[in-house]
Amino acid sequence: MKRILKNKYEIKQMRESGKITANVLEMIKSYIVTDISTEEINQICHHYITQKKKAIPACLGYKNFPKSICISVNDTVCHGIPNKKTFLKNGDIVNIDVAVIKNDYYTDASRMFFVGKINKKNKKLCKITRNSLYKSLKYIKNKKKINKIGKVIQKYIEKNKFSIVKEYCGHGIGKNFHENPYILHFYNKNNNIKMYSGMTFTIEPIVNIRSSNIKYMKDGWTVKTRDGGFSAQYEHTILVTNTGCEILTYQRNEKIPKIFINI
C-alpha cells in the first residue's frame, strides 16, 4: 500500500482546514434546539463555511450527496440527509458530520449533540463512543502498527456492552477526501501496516446501543440501525507526529490535549 505522507506545507494547509471544520461544530452547537429542522441546520453551516470562512463544504456534490453536511438523528448510523420535514425534538441525540476544503485540502470531523433532556443510556452511549476515540489517540506513534487503534476501540466498546458498526472505517485524508490508510475500528491482524510521521487520517467509530446490524435506506445514503436502537459517532482528523499525534480538528472544551506525546 502506498504511504501518503504530508510535508510541512501540506500540514500547514490541513491545520487551517481543520480549524475551520472545528469552528463549524463549535458554532452550530447553540442552534441544536427543539423544533429546528435539519435543513435549517444545514443552511446555517453552509453559509458559515462558504461566506464566513471562505471554504468549500466537501460533502456537497460528493458522489451526488445533495447537502453540505450530514445530520444523523437517533437510530441513523451515518450519512443522514438534512431535510425540511425532520425537526429535532426533546430527547434526540444528533450527529453532525462536517468536512471542508480549504486551499485544496480536506479535513473531516463529527460529534454528538443533545436536544433537551437525554436519558442516561443514550448519554452513556455518546460518552463511551467519544472516549473510545480519545483512548485510541494514546496509541498513535511513528512506526507502530495501525491495527492497535481498532484493538483499543473494540476492547473499550465491548467492555461497556455496546456494539461497533464494522461496515465503515476511518480513512486517510488530505488532497483527497478519502485516501490511504484506512482505519478499522475493530482489531484485524491483517491490517498491520505501520503509522508514520506525516500521515493524516480520520478516526471515527460508530457505536450502536444494541446490535451492530444496519440497513440502507432507499435514498442511497442514509444508514440506520436494523433494530431501531440509537447510534453515536465521534470523528477527528489526526496527524501522526514523531512523538505521537496532533488533533487537526480540535474543538473548544475538549477534555483532552490537542497534541499527544506518546513516547
Automatic annotation (TrEMBL):
Keyword Protease found: yes
Entry keywords, A to Z: Aminopeptidase, Hydrolase, Metal-binding, Protease
SUPFAM superfamilies for this protein: Creatinase/aminopeptidase
Cellular component GO terms held in the UniProt record: cytosol
Annotated positions binding a divalent metal cation 1: D97, D108, E235
Family the UniProt entry places it in: Belongs to the peptidase M24A family. Methionine aminopeptidase type 1 subfamily.
Class of the enzyme per the UniProt entry, highest EC level: hydrolase
Lineage of source species: Bacteria, Pseudomonadati, Pseudomonadota, Gammaproteobacteria, Enterobacterales
Keyword Isomerase: no
Reported cofactor(s): Co(2+); Zn(2+); Mn(2+); Fe(2+)
GO terms of biological process kind: proteolysis
Domain Peptidase M24: 13-242
A single GO molecular function term of this UniProt record: metal ion binding
Name of protein: Methionine aminopeptidase
Binding-site positions, a divalent metal cation 2: D108, H171, E204, E235
Organism encoding this protein: Buchnera aphidicola subsp. Cinara cedri (strain Cc)
Gene3D superfamilies linked to this entry: Creatinase/methionine aminopeptidase superfamily
Binding site for substrate: H79, H178
PROSITE patterns associated with the record: MAP_1
Catalytic activity: Release of N-terminal amino acids, preferentially methionine, from peptides and arylamides
Subunit-structure text: Monomer.
Cofactor note: Binds 2 divalent metal cations per subunit. Has a high-affinity and a low affinity metal-binding site. The true nature of the physiological cofactor is under debate. The enzyme is active with cobalt, zinc, manganese or divalent iron ions. Most likely, methionine aminopeptidases function as mononuclear Fe(2+)-metalloproteases under physiological conditions, and the catalytically relevant metal-binding site has been assigned to the histidine-containing high-affinity site.
Function, in words: Removes the N-terminal methionine from nascent proteins. The N-terminal methionine is often cleaved when the second residue in the primary sequence is small and uncharged (Met-Ala-, Cys, Gly, Pro, Ser, Thr, or Val). Requires deformylation of the N(alpha)-formylated initiator methionine before it can be hydrolyzed.
Signal peptide (from-to): none
